[in-house]
Structures are given as structure tokens and as C-alpha cells.
Amino acid sequence: DTAVSQTPKYLVTQMGNDKSIKCEQNLGHDTMYWYKQDSKKFLKIMFSYNNKELIINETVPNRFSPKSPDKAHLNLHINSLELGDSAVYFCASSLNQGVGEAFFGQGTRLTVV
Amino acid sequence: GENVEQHPSTLSVQEGDSAVIKCTYSDSASNYFPWYKQELGKRPQLIIDIRSNVGEKKDQRIAVTLNKTAKHFSLHITETQPEDSAVYFCAASKGNTPLVFGKGTRLSVIA
């Protein structure tokens, strides 16, 4: 009964490949997010989805595309992976945009070789 | 957009001492200020939060203070224990935007 779950936990892939990370929340929240945590531990917002609509798209390369089939899911697709994409990616959700606690998934450690 | 600065980046304290982490924010419209703790290899988890209509909030050994005029807020941990060792993040939001995080403080509690 994990609140926010994302898969896979680890992902090792070669440069140029396309990969996806899945995220699901069972909290009934309206807003979901993707954050990137780099090697220096900085948590940076990538995307925010509210009721299946993209609210904010930060300065993220268009190789990254969020896809939300329904309110409970927000998947992250990455095309043409680069070495600099290596990081831990966290999915999160909150009741509403920026209101109240954000619950994080366990993270996906992406390594591009 | 919002910018959150956090200091110090690393902090070492002796077990039993207090630890203080400070953050400043840039957007005066921000009204929600949570603190997250991230243990090694784990997800960030909320430990305490405060809203702009409150100046101070306490939960056992943890307290947060907010100065809206100066646009800064602080986390205070008293009687630190080894299990308090982690990376702590402050964040700010104005209710219609995602949380913007500070760069984190790595706290080490030395037994």
C-alpha cells in the first residue's frame, strides 16, 4: 500500500537510448511532480501535472516528456539519453499544486554509460 | 520565480547539542514552508512545515521559525541524536506552484 511508487528503482542504459520511468500514487492527489536530484543532492523541479494538465514545464530539454494517462499516474519518458542525464529522479504528489505535504516515491537512479 | 537559499551546506554537531539550519526565500507571496529530511539512499520525507500565518511551530525536538518581514525561516533541532544525521531541505511555495527546494544541508551528529 505504498503511497507513491515508481519503477524501476535502478536503470542503467547506454547513451542514445530511450527509456521510461513509471510513477503511480494511490493517495487521490490532484497534482504530481517529477524532480531531478543531481550528484550534489540538489532537488530541482522538472514537471508538475494537475488533473492531467501540464502546469509548469521548467527549462528541461524536450528530450524529456511527461505522460499522464490518468490522475494517478505520471510517467517520464526520456529520449536520446546523454551522460548528463545520470541522476536520481523522484516522482511526488500532493493534494493540490504547492499545497500541503508532497509525498515522494523511492526514486529511480538513472545511470547513462 | 521563487529562489530559496539554504545555509550551511554542511553542519557537524556533537550528540546532544542543537543544530540550526537557515533558509531565505525571494517571493514575498510564498506562504508554505516545509522541511524535508533525506536519509542516505532514501526518499525525502516531511518532518515539519509552517504556514505564513504562524511565526513558530514545534514538534518534540524539532521547531521551525518564520520571519515574513525578513523572508527567512529556520529549522532548530535540539538534543541531537545520531539518527538525526541526514540531508535536510527547506522549501517554499505560494500555493499555486510546486515546492522550490534549497540546496540542502548535510547534518552529521557525532556520537
Topology, element by element:
The complex is a heterodimer of chains A (113) and B (111).
Chain A: E1 4-7, E2 10-13, E3 19-25, E4 31-37, E5 43-50, E6 53-57, E7 64-70, E8 73-78, E9 87-94, E10 103-104, E11 108-112
Parallel strand pairs in A: 2-11
Antiparallel strand pairs in A: 1-3, 3-8, 4-5, 4-9, 5-6, 7-8, 9-10, 9-11
Chain B: E1 4-7, E2 10-14, E3 19-25, E4 32-38, E5 45-51, E6 56-59, E7 62-67, E8 72-77, E9 86-92, E10 100-101, E11 105-110
Parallel strand pairs in B: 2-11
Antiparallel strand pairs in B: 1-3, 3-8, 4-5, 4-9, 6-7, 7-8, 9-10, 9-11
Protein traits:
heterodimer, A: 113 residues, mainly beta, 7-stranded mixed β-sheet, 11 strands, B: 111 residues, 6-stranded mixed β-sheet, 5-stranded antiparallel β-sheet, 0% helix, globular
Provide the gyration radius of chain A in Å: 13 Å
Find the biggest chain interface. A-B, 22 and 23 residues
**What is the count of β-strands of chain B?**
11
How many beta-strand segments of chain A?
Answer: 11
End-to-end C-alpha gap of chain A: 34 Å
CA(first)-CA(last) distance of chain B: 41 Å
Report the oligomer.
heterodimer
Helix/strand-derived category of chain A reads mainly beta
- The percent range for helix content of chain A is under 10%
- How large is the count of helical segments of chain A? 0
- The chain-level structural class of chain B is mainly beta
What's the shape of chain B?
Answer: globular
Write a brief structural summary.
The complex is a heterodimer of chains A (113) and B (111). Chain A is an all-beta fold.
Notes on the protein architecture:
The complex is a heterodimer of chains A (113) and B (111). Chain A has strands at residues 4-7, 10-13, 19-25, 31-37, 43-50, 53-57, 64-70, 73-78, 87-94, 103-104, 108-112. Chain A is an all-beta fold. Chain A is globular, with a radius of gyration of 13 Å. In chain A, 35% of the residues are buried. Chain B has 111 residues and is mainly beta. Chain B is built from no helices and 11 strands. Chain B has strands at 4-7, 10-14, 19-25, 32-38, 45-51, 56-59, 62-67, 72-77, 86-92, 100-101, 105-110. In chain B, strand 7 and strand 8 (72-77) form a beta hairpin. Chain B is globular, with a radius of gyration of 13 Å. At the A-B interface, strand 5 of A face strand 4, strand 5 and strand 10 of B.
